[in-house]
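Please review this one:
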Amino acid sequence: MKLHPVMLFFCCWPLTARPQDAYLDSIKAFQKNYVDTHEVVLGPDRQYLSFYPADQLFCVEATFEKAQDTTEYTMSTSSGKVKRYLKYGLVRFRIHDTAQQLTVYQSIDLMKQEKYRDYLFIPFGDATSGFTSYGGGRYLDFVMGDIRRGHLLIDFNKAYNPYCAYTTGYNCPIPPVENILTVAIDAGEKNYGKPYH
């Protein structure tokens, strides 16, 4: 499993010409690294990985509220099995002047591993799901240190597809109903451009 943490520094810059160019360059570098190191789509088929044009308007500052209920949550997966999570918190933000919120999860199994102890996960769907983006939703990864003074920067330009978007045999978490956004997130990874077997 790979983590794709948000680059906080560029996301914080105001929308002036030079910082915006630097931000867009950082997203291009992120996407290139994502394609070059993809663990499922290999060789020439990597040319079919595609992304929406990078747009800094989809890099949003969200307020973060830590969850009080630590009850185990079972999330459905593409294989019909379930995975165990804790609801770590809730983020609230605005996209196109529309208030939205997403639940942040922590994997019970991964938190037992030193490497992923502080790993956080946001699976989400939106109005593009099943159309220009993968119908099974997309993912965002964070670490606990990304949460600063009750805020979390969410960069949807780094949203990526689960492995189930390319092939079978994986247990990909399906975004819960509470994480289906009412707006279109025209940012991040799009539908895979070729059936992969």
Q: What stands out?
A: Helices lie at 8-12, 17-36. Residues 127 and 184 are 4 Å apart (CA to CA).
